Amino acid sequence: MANSGLQILGFTLALLGLIALVASTIMPQWKMSSYAGDNIITAQAIYMGLWMNCVYQSTGQIQCKVYDSILALGASLQATRALMVVGIVVGVLAVGISSVGMKCTRCGGDDKAKKSRIAMGGGIAFILAGTSLDRLSL
Questions:
Q1: Cα–Cα distance for residue pair 18/9, rounded to 1 Å
Q2: Domain residues for 92?
Q3: N or C: which end of the chain has fewer CB within 10 A?
């Protein structure tokens, strides 16, 4: 079993990855396009995310609209939304499992073999959360 410092480092990095996953799921900058037209004053940047579309105008005004219907979205966007949510759920479960199995916690008893198996299960759950996101291509 790894020492406590390595476990805390791995847990911290995994937690930062989970926070980045949540942030990337929420942000509307998944697809970006722009339109300048004949006049730069009327330039627009269009952001299409998993949950909403946003239009940013060169005047500084931004307008966002949440998707009205899930059924109106394309299949790839629906699959991406589902995989991102599944990745977040599995990541949260992995945080709970890993925190029980770490050496520095008292949860799960004092049996070192049992705690190492729990920590290994948490690591496998983190890997599963990452591989569910590996299939994304929007």
A1: 14
A2: 4-30+70-133
A3: C
